[in-house]
Amino acid sequence: MTTPPPRTLALPYPWQQPHWQRLLQWQAQGKLPHALMLSGQGGIGKAHFARAAAQYLLCSAPRSGLACGSCRACELNLAGSHPDLLWVQPQEAGKAVKVDQIRELADFVAKTAQQGGMKLAVIAPAEAMNVNAANALLKSLEEPAGDTLLILVSHSAGRVMATLRSRCQLLALPTPSPEQALPWLSQLVSGEDPRALLQYAGGAPLAALELLEGDLLERRAEFLAGLVGVAQGQVSALEAAAASMKAEPLKLLDWLLGWLQLGARQLAGIAAQGEAEGEQLQALFSGVQPGHLYRYLDKVILAKGQLLSGANPNKQLLLEELFMDWSALLRSRAAARQSQRNGLT
Asked: What DSSP line would sit under 29-97, residue for residue?
């Protein structure tokens, strides 16, 4: 399956330049791996990097380390119809990459390039492959074709089968620093504070930009209001879960993980300087026992991993459980405070 036509050339983002230069060096030295895994936080542009790499490596006349944009290969790429490029992704958002899709990829790999150059196949995200799909891909990696590059894009490399990871050259793309991301983001944002958006997105620039699409900022505010309401005893866990039903579960888990990580830093004595939601978060986590917070954090990470693997849990039950566990975390805080008071009397 292919993604929609990109329409314009994909140029590596400013914060990706060191890794782009490494890719160019591999290609110039004839050391390009047969399989490459791009790993890193979601929303930093890994799939964009894969698209830029595909356009460059398939280009007939690259210039200055970039695709030319005007040769026949680039025209096909921009039209989304290059016969030597295959994108494999879940057929529906949040679903698994299935074995039939990987079999299609294996057939693609076995064929000769139609444009006389190399072939590229991109799997994004790689952790969305179910067990059968991952095992099917393993055979293609064990018997790589000399003219084919497989690019696996992963938001969570640890969830990709170890035998697959071991057969790929890992290229870990870091989350850019605010100094790297803010100039880029500021050019695209109007009416919102780009620094706050970047904080909301955990430092991921593309995820920050996505917050401006639709009603994501409103949904984020509703979710945080639900957590605060439960903490203050104003709403029940079930009521807060019902109020958060409009948002995508994976988004909610990402936001919750960001807040819990801030809470963990707060409990470790690391001040949340400049955080847009710092005061609310400080009040939420004040007095929480670190061990209880880490157990809750582990549970949220596990739930996110299940979603990334293509699992399809009942959304209402998932949210109700998250809010009930949040309520239990706060009850443990209250119990600890009461115990402290009793010890002083």
From this structure: TT---SEEEEE--TTSSHHHHHHHHHHHHH-SS-BTTB--S-SHHHHHHHTT--TTEEEE--SSTT-PB
Which long-range contacts link 264-267 to residues 24+ away (Cβ below 8 Å)? 264/290, 264/293, 264/294, 264/297, 267/293
What are 120's strand-pairing partners?
85, 149
Question: Tokens representing 134?
Answer: 């991952």
- Cα–Cα dist 142/139, whole Å: 5
Q: Rounded to an integer, what distance in angstroms lies between the CA atom of residue 106 and that of residue 135?
A: 12
pLDDT, one tens digit per residue, over 15-26 is: 999 999 999 999
Cβ atoms < 10 Å from Cβ of 286: 12
pLDDT of residue 273: 58
Tokens of 261: 């990580």
pTM: 0.88
pLDDT band at 236; cut points 50, 70, 90: very high
Q: Would you give the distance in Å from CA 21 to the centre of its chain?
A: 23
pLDDT at 343: 54
Cα Rg, the chain, nearest whole Å: 23
CB-based contacts of 55, cutoff 8 Å, min separation 6: 6, 9, 10, 67, 74, 77
Specify the pairing of strand 148-154 against strand 35-39.
parallel
List phi, psi (to 5°) of 149. -115, 125
E strands present in the chain: 35-39, 85-88, 119-123, 148-154, 169-172
